[in-house]
UniProtKB/TrEMBL annotation:
Residues 82-162 form the Zinc finger PHD-type domain. SMART domains: PHD (SM00249). It is found in: Nucleus. Keywords: Chromatin regulator, Metal-binding, Nucleus, Transcription, Transcription regulation, Transferase, Zinc, Zinc-finger. This is histone acetyltransferase. Acetyltransferase enzyme. Acetylates histones, giving a specific tag for transcriptional activation. Its EC number is 2.3.1.48. It comes from Diacronema lutheri (Unicellular marine alga). It catalyses: L-lysyl-[protein] + acetyl-CoA = N(6)-acetyl-L-lysyl-[protein] + CoA + H(+).
Length: 206
């Protein structure tokens, strides 16, 4: 197979690498040059707040208005992040190098940390996938496309094309429905409560 055509966004800057059918590729395209609109949500850009961030030492969440210190690595190893108070404590302790080894299990130079603002972290921008049949583009999250977990030679079809052409998704692209999730005591209580509220409000599904 030739694989799905996708557009991948970089979290640090909003540019895309576009993999085209037949093996072609265009790198570093700005979002304005893509001229794409998602055929599912009808929006050109879908952004998400970055996940919460925690201090490596005190484990407290770093608030949006706070400043923090980042190891600022450019490799695959997760960088150490410290709140301002913990960074100051470590920098002023008797043996900062030993303290960091004990904290994160490797040698870390506090002198290489960069002060940042939590609110300045870039938003996460969704990637794109193209339908093999109608060539429409869709955000990964709108299409329930598994992205990096999908083999490169897997072709993808949008929901309308799958219905019209009687196509089915390959097993590696199937997303289990909510009904397939395992139950817990809490989930059963919540479902029963919601069902009662809907019944009292005379809300029905057709």
């Amino acid at each position: 197979g030739k694989g799905a055509a996708v557009a991948l966004a970089y979290p640090s800057q909003i540019v895309y690498d576009v993999m085209l059918r037949g093996g072609g590729e265009e790198k570093g395209l700005a979002r304005s040059r893509l001229r794409l609109v998602c055929s599912t949500c009808l929006c050109d850009k879908k952004t998400f707040k970055p996940p919460p961030m925690y201090c490596e030492k005190c484990l407290a969440g770093i608030h949006q208005r706070w400043r923090y210190w980042d190891e600022a690595r450019d490799d695959e190893i997760a960088s150490v992040k410290l709140c301002n108070r913990c960074f100051t404590e470590l920098r002023n302790c008797a043996d900062p190098e030993s303290a960091m080894i004990e904290l994160v299990g490797r040698s870390v130079e506090l002198g290489g940390f960069v002060e940042r603002k939590e609110k300045d972290r870039p938003e996460f921008v969704d990637n794109w996938v193209q339908c093999e049949e109608c060539h429409s583009w869709h955000h990964w999250v709108c299409a329930l496309f598994k992205g990096e977990d999908t083999p490169e030679d897997t072709e993808w079809y949008c929901e309308p094309c799958r219905r019209n052409r009687s196509k089915t998704l390959p097993d590696e692209l199937l997303v289990p429905p909510a009904a397939a999730l395992p139950h817990t005591a809490m989930s059963r209580v919540l479902e029963e409560y919601v069902a009662q509220e809907l019944q009292q409000a005379q809300v029905t599904c057709e």
